[in-house]
């Protein structure tokens, strides 16, 4: 049987994703501050039977390229950027089924407050929330939060492990399932013997008390991760229920999937319980020719300066210091982040500057151009060859890219039995995995649910 | 001319306000986790031409009474409690005019993140957000955020002054009015020369960079404060645009109003530009008899244990150690918080235990019981005698108290020309004060708006 492909849209609460395309005549990114834009997008995604939308985030600016924040402002590279968590109530009120995953850094938010935010959003959306766990990488963010310098990657992950322990305790073990009675006869709202202090005392956090919120439908939100470093992959294999990838090749994607599944198995988890959702950019037309024309028109708007600003932020290298060959050399020599790493992990392929330019001019990601049938072919092929479970669809123009995908590609994938035609009932986790609203038995967060903590 | 009375509703994202009333047969507080409850409430308030709703908050539990969190759980005294900021997108999407003020503590949220949250909410609501500035008082919150003990009140206010400086710089001076160009011809989204680093370096915070968000309609949200201590009153007179009071007497309220207005004048502000909105609880019936019957039925649900839990939390005294006379003695001797202080500040009145019981059984606040005409008389009299500018209406049962007020009291106040029959257009600040969307010239936050900071 063919595997159902999950569809996730990638968004940010800012004016641009693919650098430069905000200036496309058909682009509506200037509406990003308008709640109605997000209502319409959510309804469009639900019409297309998308499983979820990811709201990515940063808490600083890109300032590596030309050693200045100026290029990121000029090209709107993730600046300005609003707090994406507030889009979830807007979008969840306008939909019934769509899931909402939001990026929140463990570096700048205390776990006691983060746990409440996520429980609140899970309550308001009736169990449709996911959390994309990141440890942050922008030094501008670190400085504005009063940290003299960014923690090392290793320290960030060590702290993040303890962070997860704290939030699991709050979500899974603090309030027993039947703690809240709301008994108007006995006048007891909550049975205090069934609410437990978590008594956490670790290297980074001290959280003695109870969780602020009563249990939500999922308790722990669906956990997303996008680790690409060795530490990141280990983290994803331990905690991730869904994993993003951004590797432009089938080989690189397959390797990453197999690597993380193997690590998960070694950690005692069902390797197939992790869903992989690589990032894909699609330019689709009703015919191949129309798609090609759209693609070529789009190139008029792609911004090299914007791309270099983004790549510099990811890699920490100021590309304004080098010619194009240096960029290629750097990419081939490899660095530790995202696309840069995926490229260096593909030694079997020769990357020419032309390859890279083509790849990058629609953002540093996998690009599929073609008719609905061709796109469906490519997506099925990519999935079958790599073992991924669906795709994270990014946009080029807003909301055109998503509208085209919903109107042209989704019906074709539905005809092929690859995309759901109706939603399952229930929480985001139940819709994604079937069966359960809560973390599965073999997930490390589950072990906290047998409340062992002492009652208050 | 009679002064227009502003109406503000007091809510919390939890199951109870007046202790015990969640168990009233007509109370719908169990719906507090349901977004639709808040949609309906927002629409009801807008129907009643309320100016705003205040979403109060705590980040810990009440654990002084019986030296345990158990009573607060049993009686649902501000526990469980969700994050109220997420109700704003829900309610603003369902309304056009209502303002939304939310309590956020300066103790547990970094100003760089708080500034983004407020700008985001102001964008999504198109300029309808207020911030109730608190410095927090619950030691359970301090402990769960890893602080061994709560900061002293003086230190909290000193830190809060610097906190305000940081957020004013981010909101008022970082992005010039015409920084964002969105020019599709020149392909410049933001003019970097018009975005300024705030370069803040103080005792408590170091924030060198730019604000994450472009300017929202109000830039700085409408600033609410409820200071009752000497330091609190000074803070309110400097920063507050709206001030809550919770003093059950006309004399005490008038003194507080005059005191804060005098302090504001001494600080160079127009003393009448501060709006005072004391907390009032109303039990209204279509006749006096019906109101009295409602009041007496309500007493069956009032919870002494719940009240003592709340008062113990406010005062820091565990009343389970004392008889009722001790409570009276304590209240008369005075302490530093809220109602307790207001009572001691009224030496001209003899407070009997019966007075206190009556007062407290509907929550520690001013209670008016009567027909619509009687309530309107009392509100007008209270306003005229004290110089306040409106009222913060709390609920007893949900949503019955607000529904009764909207259906019975508001039309009477409108007939008397005291409550608006239509909303003005524009932002929350413009609706409240007329004239301007931004901080007035004599407000300390305004001085930051002439951007002096160096561009990026």
UniProtKB/TrEMBL annotation, chains A, B:
GO terms for molecular function: monooxygenase activity; oxidoreductase activity, acting on paired donors, with incorporation or reduction of molecular oxygen. Residues 433-456 are annotated as: Disordered. FMN binds at residues 57, 103, 157, 229. The keyword Mitochondrion does not apply. The keyword Methyltransferase does not apply. Residues 27-389 form the Luciferase-like domain. Keywords: Flavoprotein, FMN, Monooxygenase, Oxidoreductase. It comes from the Bacteria. It holds the Pfam family Bac_luciferase. CDD domains: Nitrilotriacetate_monoxgenase. Belongs to the NtaA/SnaA/DszA monooxygenase family. This is N5,N10-methylene tetrahydromethanopterin reductase. It comes from Cohnella abietis.
